[in-house]
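Long-time lurker. I teach an intro course on protein structure, and each term I like to show students one example going from raw sequence to a predicted 3D structure in token notation. This year I'd like something fresh instead of my usual example. Would anyone be willing to generate the tokens for the chain below so I can use it in lecture? Attribution to the forum is fine with me.
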Amino acid sequence: MLQRLNPYVAGYILVYCLNTWFATSVDGFPLEEALGVLIVMGIGFSLIAHFLSRGATPLDEPRPAQTNERMVLLGLVIYFMLVIIPGNKPLTLLLPASWQDTEAKLSVITLVRKLTTFVVFPFLAYRFLYRIGASDFGLSTDWKRVFSRKHMMIFFGMSFLLAAFNYYAGSGARPLREGLLSGQQLLLGIPILFLWDYLEVGLGEEFFFRGLLQNRLAVLLRSPWGSIFVTAFIFGVVHAPGMYLRGAGVIEGLGGAPSLLTCISYCIAVQSVTGIFFGILWHRTRNLWILMGIHAITDLVPHLYGFVKEWGI
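-- Reply from a regular --
Happy to contribute to a lecture. Here you go:
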């Protein structure tokens, strides 16, 4: 197995090191920030995920490789990259202004767009071409196995550690640490935002990158562990064009007009490593339900204050 894994893992490490060097040495991105993300998210939480998920029983086995599946999967990756570039802009041009005059309404548009483009369309493509159903993407309805003791231990253990880390170390949690939300706002906001993130970032992102991409790459590459790193690389690369064209460099600390190469280097050096521990959890459990929940908890703490204010809770 190690012989099969080595090319993918070694290739990812080489590409990661080159892009980290470029982002920090050529573009001036802080090296300590890149190393911090690598150590905490790429290594620390990946090791925790590895040990917590040891002995877990996957919900099912992946389907064998399908006819022309490599081309289908490549087409879906290109499709994903193309649809995230404009974001909501095409919809905002088509929809009435009264449907988008508040941040809350724009959030609903984003949710619908994500679920339609990142979940429904890829699912229907595989369903139509290969008769692959929801359970093959980790959405089993064998609830006894979905909520088994081991899988719940993984969910609660990872969720607690990620929430604690984001609360104490994340800048997005500063309003929470400063007590800017009342008890009633917390009581209402936390469960509502969890359900929202469960759909938007949980289902909307984990379905495509874990349930579909990593799931099928493990079969096509004949290397489950190699698929973790290939998926992490693709996760970084597909976000770069959108960051470049939407001018998101200021938000990410890259300046007002970063080059496309700068955006690619940043996405590989910083964003790609954050998905490795999710990849480990998927490989060990093949349970998309709990991965959706862990992802929702990961985003809940930094997003809670803005969500409460946006919706007037």
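Some talking points for your students: The radius of gyration is 19 Å. Residues 183-220 form the longest helix (38 residues).
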